[in-house]
Predict the structure.
Amino acid sequence: GQQLNQSPQSMFIQEGEDVSMNCTSSSIFNTWLWYKQDPGEGPVLLIALYKAGELTSNGRLTAQFGITRKDSFLNISASIPSDVGIYFCAGRDGSGNTGKLIFGQGTTLQVKP
Amino acid sequence: DAGVIQSPRHEVTEMGQEVTLRCKPISGHNSLFWYRQTMMRGLELLIYFNNNVPIDDSGMPEDRFSAKMPNASFSTLKIQPSEPRDSAVYFCASSPQLTGELFFGEGSRLTVL
């Protein structure tokens, strides 16, 4: 079945540093979504990508849909303490008009003030 | 605007008991998804509906799990009988259309003793 490999699994960085995380899939996707989850809350959508090569920003966050359609990355610039949380990539199969959205295992981000 | 509303937020029950989780999607959203989150398996898609019709229930772990969507504003996920391995956070999410972005509720944390 489809799998998403998300890396790194966790990161511990200093406030002000930039962060990069990525996801790769075993098959072609037509949608990549990036979510953030805080403790005790549901995932919150950060960025949505629908076209290969698309580069989209949301404040200090930037995400790209890989040209091969099998990968995506998320960058966070100038990290701040409230960036702490778990970041998930999610992708949707490109082979058909299916709604099935699968999630990566998550990247846990810790920011040291 | 109200987001996805789930209830209960927390449930503790004993093995063998019936559990019913409830979800009210965002008004106007046509698709509804049920996910389960555990440390070991991450976010797993259980079942999703489009226009109140179940589209894919291949993620439902066993016959003990069932889900219904009697109308556009309400869905239930039922576990009968519950087992300790069902302990997890169950999320409901809705989307404007089948291939759109998912918006999550805050989750229902289930503990089966």
